[in-house]
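#lab-general

N.A. 3:47 PM
ok so I finally got the sequence cleaned up, no stray characters, all 288 residues accounted for. can someone with queue access submit it? mine expired

B.Y. 3:52 PM
send it over

N.A. 3:53 PM
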Amino acid sequence: MMITMPIQQARAAVRKGRRALIDLQLARRVKDIDAFLVSYPKSGRTWLRYLLSIYLAKVHAVPVKLDLQTTFEILPNFDLDRKRGLPVFTSSGDGSTLPLIAVSHRSYEQRFFAQKPIIMLVRDPRDVIVSAYFHQTQHKKRFSGTIPEFIVDHQFGIKSIIDYHNGWAAGLVNSPALVISYEDLSKNTEATVRQLLGFLKIPVHEEYLREAIAGAAFDRMKKVEKAKPIPGHAYNAENDDSSRVRKGKVGGYGDNLGADDILKIENMMRDGLTPAAVKLMAHSGYSV
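B.Y. 4:20 PM
back already:
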């Protein structure tokens, strides 16, 4: 008598096989990548990507009108998505070489990231967890519980943040790396971007840098998102809590977290972070 695999297990096996095939293809393309921009989700990556896209498009005369859809043509995701991934990476318009800076939320894997220049963006985990909560409840519709429930959820909550940063803190020793924070990017935008460009050995063009910073200002980005939302996602860009450009406020977690929530986060971070990850998170001003 034949024993059939349950449908859910069969589907999981198919997904796993598909991911393995994609990862194999990605591993083959790592040689073409000049640098990676990595961060845990909801750490401010959309803002930094858009700002850098504007700058690089100007420097390399890329013939594209930048918005939150075409930004992926300049800084694509490290995947094979045909709207946001490596296949949409464009070329410069002046014959120069547009650097391929691949953007990723992936956990550290040596086969992808070792020896490649890494720009890592970190953010206060209390702000991250609030932004992630609205992202998963309003944007992705993957979670329907309360913020206290979200904090302790193994898939989306603080444990996920801890595991991600523990892995990257250990992995960064294998690569030339620059760690920047959302907090510094917010407070000292120009200085932080200059530091990033210097790390990548990209010349600073003063006029283009000013234009990129102004073009990626929070209010402008909100208007850009409402006009052309990020591709590949079904969400209401008119709803501030479901949009990618939500509040952008440093230290805004106090608007949504109670004292017990904050204490829970601090205890989990203190118990879970490795010493190397503690140093990594300290770039955001967060300490355990």
